[in-house]
Amino acid sequence: MIDFKPTRxxxxxxxxxxxxxxxxxxxxxxxxAAAPITKAEAVQAAGLTGSETPEEMQMIYAKFxxxxxxxxxxxxxxxxxxxxxxxxxxxxxxxxxxxxxxxxGLSRDEEMAFWFNLYNAKTIDVILDAYPLESIRKxxxxxxxxxDKKNMNVAGKGEMSLxxxxxxxxxxxxxxxxxxxxxxxxxxxxPNLKATPWTAEELEADLKQAAIDYINHPRGFNAExxxxxxxxxxxxxxxxxxxxxxxxxxxxxxxxxGDLKTALDAADTINNFEYDWNLxxx
Length: 282
Description:
Layout lengths: L10 H14 L14 H7 L8 H15 E4 L2 E4 L6 H17 L6 H23 L21 E2 L5 E2 L1 H12 L29 H13 L5 E4 L2 E5 H5 L8 H9 L4 H9 L5 E3 L8
Parallel strand pairs: 6-7
Antiparallel strand pairs: 1-2, 3-4, 5-6
């Protein structure tokens, strides 16, 4: 068992984090930006040995989530401003451990859980490097977000972005619409950041619950005054949900409950799509 209380943060992490913050905020350039932090550097900064098992690294991530996520009104908020330097370092070490581990030898469910955890942990890491900020969309060129930035290298197979993980890997290799309930973009409008790591053992049950939680929350679907409002996620990725409004409604009916289920059963269209890009900060 490892202790999740690293003794101190090294000067190395502080220097690297400052450089990463400048790059994420569009203030850096190719001639001055520091090289990405390595696994060894992240492990050193977190006060780890580098010999931790994948299970032990997963425990580090689980402890991070347990410490900083607070559910409120059906939304999992993350206390970005409260994250200690030691815990920032531990999260970086976890991300780097996933990159080094890769997916070789994993079952299909294990691989899906791996990509979910990498995407979500890296997104938190990106936010922490740039914090404080009001929205993830404030990052990247022209406030386009960080999703195209090549900031990961899984098993030495080449640089990857968050978009490469979500669209080039998950959506490409799994024809599973519930992927959209598993990856979190650090926004209030997004499906919840899972409060525990994704695992193969609970994958199906957790995907089902994530769909139920999002669809039955007003930011997923809202029926009011005889009109249906849905998250823009269903519009942006309508091809994953049947290709049109009828397909989206059919998907939602599988998970809707109570009054929402009654309203969706009677609905023949979706009247509006909305999304809240404010940071899921609490």
